[in-house]
């Protein structure tokens, strides 16, 4: 997911504890941990939220504020693909499964949410059955049924001309999914026959092949129930019917959303949520520096979870009292540049290899904020995702690029120079800085790239994620950041490498890579029961992708979060890119 991702997670602040876990947290506490905050209270210490819950409290009341520098793709749970919206949307949209609130790797633990228990697999993993909890209600008091879950999956996956922003796993894997036209064109009440609802609390998914990680798939907000009678397609975002602990009081597109308690939410049906604040305000299009100030003042959370800005970073790591209220974590996210294989001359592997050798990755790392914001990368899979194997196919001295090798590949491609465009998100300053560093590297070898900036809220729907647009605009290179949809090689690789994932809008396979061998390996992996065997297939996919040079790994992303002192139940979770778990944050003191 784009951070997915967006949409995940080491540091100059302290030494790395270990490699291979799903959280890879910064080791130990610094001297700053013992400093008091400016208000005189003792801080929990640097990286405290990566090890446990900070300011644990069940006290209710107050207004919780989130701030975002742009707008999300959508508040509609069936039409979103950013990690922070997967995280936040659980307040109003309960999926069948979700992730247990917990620090680091503990946060990767799958638990039932709308479902009463994990899925029951049969037919070798091709059939999955879920039973809903009893007593579930929407905000209007009407009952939630399995038919509403079925409908939610159908609208989110089978009406791509209307709702195109989320992934399309269900469309790819459900039996008959390639033929079903979706609920807006299907005027009957039958819907897709491979999703059965034998009664109001049972839902059965029939797949065309074994899918051994299906419990992870149904943790996506696409399984949050939607009442068909209340669905208005793309306009549903204006009047979302809540199944969670909060409901929408108001929604002003591009400005803010206000959530209040859902009085028909029943804690007896929900062991996960605490419903602590009286009100939750989500402010949009807030200046990034303003967000940092508000967070440091203890009055807001950075919803995007991408960390403080460069200027703020310098402040917090040099001030012991501020540093003591930061969390620096790493996990499952890759910053990379996609090379568009359909835009000439990058349809030739030699031209793509020229790009690989040309880039000074140290300059990119510096532009992003230094080692505290990312470790130099050389593989598709980050070190904390199953299937990772250390490798560097395009190694250069000190990772600073190799002009001679780049020019050799350019010559092998039949070129002495290339003119192209590089896309990046206009509201992400560090991404712009990284893109600028790349442009400077490429220029040294005769690849002249012009920066094209687009807003993140429309990056995938209107620009980089639209194949026709990128071809017409000669966008051969695209900045990207990606986190696992779930913590496995498949959860990371599928939506950025599988040819079947390419769509005409909302596309996240920005390289438009459609390799039959990679597609087959992905299909084989997800049907393989043995974990070790499955992970070895992910390693093969990584190697094949790098050999084909379709994306340039830049850094294994790390985030430096400022922790608002006035908020409770703050815990950094690997499940959502190192962000704080948004399910139970409060604002009242103990």
TrEMBL record:
<dbReference type="Pfam" id="PF00496">
    <property type="entry name" value="SBP_bac_5"/>
</dbReference>
<feature type="domain" description="Solute-binding protein family 5">
    <location>
        <begin position="109"/>
        <end position="501"/>
    </location>
</feature>
<dbReference type="InterPro" id="IPR030678">
    <property type="entry name" value="Peptide/Ni-bd"/>
</dbReference>
<dbReference type="InterPro" id="IPR000914">
    <property type="entry name" value="SBP_5_dom"/>
</dbReference>
<dbReference type="InterPro" id="IPR039424">
    <property type="entry name" value="SBP_5"/>
</dbReference>
<protein>
    <submittedName>
        <fullName>ABC transporter substrate-binding protein</fullName>
    </submittedName>
</protein>
<feature type="signal peptide">
    <location>
        <begin position="1"/>
        <end position="32"/>
    </location>
</feature>
<keyword id="KW-0732">Signal</keyword>
